[in-house]
Amino acid sequence: MSASDRVQALRAAIERHNIEYYARDAPLIGDAEYDHLFAELQALEAEHPELLSVDSPTQRVGAAPLPEFAALAHATPMLSLNNAFAEDEVAAFDRRVRDGLAVGSAAEVGVEVNYSAEPKFDGLAVSLSYQDGHLLRGATRGDGSSGEDVSANLRTLRSIPLRLQGSDWPAVLEVRGEVLMLRSDFAQMNERQRDKGEKEFVNPRNAAAGSLRQLDPRITATRPLRFFAYGVGIAEGAALPATHSELLDRLAAWGFPVARERRRVAGLAGLLAYYAEIGRQRSALPYDIDGVVYKVDELAAQARLGFVSRAPRFALAHKFAAEEAVTELLDITIQVGRTGALTPVARLKPVFVGGVTVINATLHNEDEIRRKDVHIGDTVVVRRAGDVIPEVVRVLPEKRPVDARRFAMPKNCPVCGSIVVRSEDDKGEKGEKGDKGVAAAVARCSGGLYCPAQRKQALLHFASRRAMDIEGLGDKLVEQLVDNAIVRTPADLYQLGVVALAGLERLAEKSAGNLLAAIEKSKQTTLARFIYALGMRNVGEATARELARHFGSLQRLLTADDAQLQEVADVGPTVAQCVRQFCSEPHNRMVIEQLRAAGVSWSESEGAMPSAGAVAGKVFVLTGTLPSLSRDAAGELIMAAGGKVTASVSKKTHFVVAGAEAGSKLEKAQQLGVSVIDEGELLALLQASPLAVPEST
């Protein structure tokens, strides 16, 4: 046998063994024999370098580091799925499917839609492109339209076939699936990290995402990543099966791992039974999942149902409820917020819940602690869902120790010692409301900017992305600026120089220069952003925009009385009082004057909004990730054309602009019959609308 023939035979054998091991969990040979084949192939390729090719299994060790990831457009968009959390939402999905397929009347006599159901992997979505059976390239999902070209990294995954098995595959094929880590592999990797004295990874999902996006593919090659296929993007040159279930079987035959727990079920009862079954198996599965996915099984029916906005009508993600865990409440400490609000925080015995190790959880306010009867030393139930801040859900009173202590809100601020006042009619800030959303009394430090905690939070708020957007001004730097008495008010930021910053810890000359450039750039802003950045109590982004829209100039706002303020949409007596008190405070007026003198400015004015056009007077809600616009940018365009952007969907909403991974807002819009549009349709509306005409203050 020639060297070329032997190389080809070895590659085919090694790929077959990879597929049997990773995709089918049925190894045909032991590790030693596999290693012998691999070593023989390496030796032959070293002896005959002209035979080396990129699809050789030996190339899975990874290539040289990349300078950066290139963008790679998907042949067809990688759409997100609508989510459901309750059975009635699944029932509504099944009803919409039957209505869309015109089988609703037949369903009354027992005709049901067949679905393909499978676990919802908690990993990183990718697409793999094959040409004539060979892996060509691969990319992350990105924004759905394009992702990052991680081809070199994906080639290191032995669960991804470099060559497809069989001969009935399409000449052009795009396979979609998830990159993840098995729980056992994750545990072993963290054990190795501990042995080396290096930092452990938080959870399998984050570890998988970080490993796949390494600029050095050789690092990716050392990480135990797995790939599971769940669908096909495009297929040219061969006919696909008639159903999604058969398509998954075909993917498995071509060498791709697919979920063993997949099922073909009938109707709503089948969907809910599958959800319950997987829920029972969840803890025993080899990988993390956060729900299940339902897809209409017949591919022709999928095509008939089509898509709404950027999500398919034929599929649904049924998510699991928030995860809970039991742990011990070690102590309750106090955080002082931007407006002086004192928030109690539970310090917990570390517990793994919702994919992360939790050591802190919010207790909202003193009233909430009393309502839940929380004592220091209690055994408590902690809940976390996604990126939501962990919270203490309830106490297990039967496990309360005899030395458990009741919590009492301090009478003096723990940071500055100022008297703490309790406002019974306070609307509260984000994070200060109880479970039922009822406004609660809030304890506040009366120290104002005398209190370093409030000063720090005020500066962080002022510099935040949605306010003045000063990149690089983070927690640690603000802490140093305040603790060293370099900055007392936001206006002091605009007086900083390299000399003042040079002595600060971990701030090199280049970093100092970048920060000063960001501060200089922030001088050009908008009136709405400036109002929001000032940090008035009870004035969020939406209220700041309405104030800017109504008054049109800062001077008119500063001199407005309560009656004039209450002419503004969504401004009631409490908000009006907060705004007036802030604007009439001499110290605040002085800081505003200093900011203006430092060069902070905006286009005068934002008050003249168009009264005609396709957008003027319309209420919009933005949800999901848009292909090219950030939600902030889209919102500003809408408001410039005279529209209004709100956070929640109601009957008063005219349009919901939905992007990738649109969730409950999209579902509610569909239930209420609100028009759902995508970014392209929004831009068309904006093009038909006149722009705001500036005027002087």
Automatic annotation (TrEMBL):
Gene Ontology MF terms: DNA ligase (NAD+) activity
Membrane-spanning parts: none
Binding site for Zn(2+): C413, C416, C451
Active site: K120
Names of required cofactors: Mg(2+); Mn(2+)
Keywords: DNA damage, DNA repair, DNA replication, Ligase, Magnesium, Manganese, Metal-binding, NAD, Zinc
Domain of life, per lineage: Bacteria
Keyword Coiled coil: no
Sites where the protein binds NAD(+): D31, A32, E33, Y34, D35, S80, L81, E118, R141, E178, K295, K319
Domain BRCT: 610-697
Catalytic activity field: NAD(+) + (deoxyribonucleotide)n-3'-hydroxyl + 5'-phospho-(deoxyribonucleotide)m = (deoxyribonucleotide)n+m + AMP + beta-nicotinamide D-nucleotide
EC number: 6.5.1.2
Top-level EC class as recorded in UniProt: ligase
Gene3D superfamilies named among the record's database cross-references: 5' to 3' exonuclease, C-terminal subdomain, 6.20.10.30, BRCT domain, DNA ligase/mRNA capping enzyme, Helix hairpin bin, Nucleic acid-binding proteins
PROSITE patterns to which the protein is assigned, alphabetical: BRCT, DNA_LIGASE_N1, DNA_LIGASE_N2
Function of the protein: DNA ligase that catalyzes the formation of phosphodiester linkages between 5'-phosphoryl and 3'-hydroxyl groups in double-stranded DNA using NAD as a coenzyme and as the energy source for the reaction. It is essential for DNA replication and repair of damaged DNA.
HAMAP family in the cross-refs: DNA_ligase_A
Family: Belongs to the NAD-dependent DNA ligase family. LigA subfamily.
Classification via PANTHER family: CHROMOSOME TRANSMISSION FIDELITY FACTOR 18, DNA LIGASE
Protein name, per record: DNA ligase
Organism name: Candidatus Accumulibacter phosphatis
Gene that this polypeptide is encoded by: ligA
